[in-house]
Prior knowledge:
Elements: E1 4-6, H1 8-11, H2 14-19, E2 21-25, E3 31-35, E4 46-51, E5 58-70, E6 76-78, E7 81-83, E8 89-92, E9 97-103, E10 106-113, E11 116-124, E12 130-139, E13 143-155, E14 169-172, E15 175-178, E16 182-185, E17 190-200, H3 202-206, E18 212-225, E19 231-238, H4 248-266, H5 271-281, E20 284-287, E21 290-293, E22 296-297, H6 304-314, H7 321-333, H8 356-371, H9 374-392, E23 415-416, E24 423-424, E25 438-439, E26 442-443, E27 450-451, H10 452-471, H11 479-493, E28 504-507, E29 520-522, H12 530-534, H13 544-554, E30 555-556, E31 559-560, H14 578-584, H15 595-604, H16 614-619, E32 631-632, E33 640-641, E34 645-646, H17 647-656
Helix pairs in contact: 4-5, 5-17, 6-8, 6-17, 7-8, 8-9, 8-10, 9-10, 10-11, 15-17
Amino acid sequence: MLPIEFGPRICGHLESAVDREWLVPDGLGGYAMGTVSGLRTRRYHGLLVVAGETPAARRLGLVSLDPELILPSGAVVRLGAHEWRSGDVDPRGYELLERFDLVDGLPRWRWRIGDLVLERELALAYGRSCLAVRHRLVSGGPARLGLAAVVTWRDSHGERRAAGPPPRVAPAAGGAVVEDAFRLTGPDWTPEGQWWHGVHHREEAARGLTPDEDLWYAGRFTGALDRPGDTVSVLAWAGDLADEPPPADDLIEAARRRNRRVVAAAKPADEVAATLTLAADAFVVRTAAGPDVVAGYPWFGAWSRDTMIAYEGLFLGTGRADEGRDLLRAYAGALVDGMLANTADTGQPEYNTTDGTLWFLHAVARHVTVAKDTDLAAELLPALRAVLLGHLRTDPRVATSAEPSAFRGARYGIGVDPADGLLTQGTAGEALTWMDARVDGEPVTQRAGKPVEVNALWINGLAAVTELAELLGQDAGPLPAARDRARAAFRRRFPSPAGWLYDVVDAPPPAYPRGGAARHDDDLLRPNQLLAWSLPHGPLDPDPATVRRLAEALLTPLGPRSLAPGSPGYVERHRGGPAERDSGYHQGTVWPWLIGPYADACRRAGLPTDELFAGLTAHLPEFGLGSVSETADAVAPHDGTGAPFQAWSVAELLRVRPS
């Protein structure tokens, strides 16, 4: 894998060290996460973040284990780091870090105090909410090591205050149980019990969210480090609190071995592919319903659109086709009225997506093609056909007797326009495409009408399911005719006089839904049109000159912008409070996942892509370590924004990089 390591110049410089975040997942949607410096900059940072019934229902338990060395002279050296409401950073243990490394995906810190070097490593058990933290004396000594256990028990999106009751901490063998939810064990536990008031999270302040909270100092572990090689370890786990985990040494070595196996199974072509393979593993989780995908860390759960866009890279590109097969079968069983839920992160399924189900058709087709899985094709073809026939019910020219449960085109105005066979969608207050941000309940980029990528996906879906039917020797029914009609209409309607494709045709007037003016065609220069050229059954062959024109306006080192500079509403930096950030989410902000469609379009146009991925490769040690950010600023230096670890960003880079 790519070496990801930093010396004292990065580790000891707070602004540089806090920009670089590490993640250790548990395979369930929980995680440990923090910064190179050890300073917690997000309310989501912690050593034991526990997934609930769904990956999105996470709770923060063990916040930190602050190390403190007691030297033979009696001097006390504090190695932790906290920022406070006052603006002070105290202690400043990062100033004693001589290096940080990711070793087989696991973080390792080394502090130097004269000739004494202390090392910390940590890991989570895969498939269990269980943390091991090991401290080893590398050189020097003797010394005693104290570890202050700072805890809470709260929703990962929230805060806890000293105005309320403190976390309940009960004694247990070798340590304590917190809120009957998780347990801590280690050497020489001493209960404390004290609020730490006004812990500050600078990233939450920058995002316009509540930046401060109060934490509970539950107690302290202490161990001797008499000679090099001596260790002091702590375990923390949720779930069955009576089921004590193996020793920390065993858990850490098991995690390393597993990570190496994950990488080896994918047969990566180079160290970048190996790094991306391990990054991809973080997003594939096991739930009660089977395998699923976390869209991004630290705050996302499962989103169907993200899952299906990422599917080929996460599963087929990493040797996990069997897991992918199970996921696709589960999602097919979750279709309701021919639609996949967009997400259930809000607490209940939301079906407000036009394209998520169309991406599902694409993912199944890619699985069958790459894995040569005709059995899955035969199993899922009735469901795929019902989705398409359900959309076609809105077109009286294509009469069908699809299954009664098939989608009838009424929800959110999604359906086929009988005038041209293209897919139209949109209803007041909803943004149904991947450009789905809303501010105060109003869409920023509603894109009602006939969006270009939705119709590229529609035509691709009709063609893909037709191909699957033919592969199985079955009659595709009205699908080929619907495909041909929609493709002809696409070629007629979407090319614009501006020299690129319209982003939306037959869009409602700007005052939608109240206005009465004629519909119009939106020619804002956005990257959505890339799907018309990049999909396997895309409706158009790319013109090299048009692709170059898009690159000139949209391409950055981290992928395409979501809107061309100089366009109405263009935003340079994805910053500020929730409303400000959502207003700029798709108005210029860079989305690295779009590197996939862009690379495919270039290749279909005969344009070179050899140097296309250099910026994203260099990004791997810059923000979410070893991973790819959700978004980035539209202008230099293109700082990463949004979630620092994002599934479709990793998956699409992994998919299109040359092997």
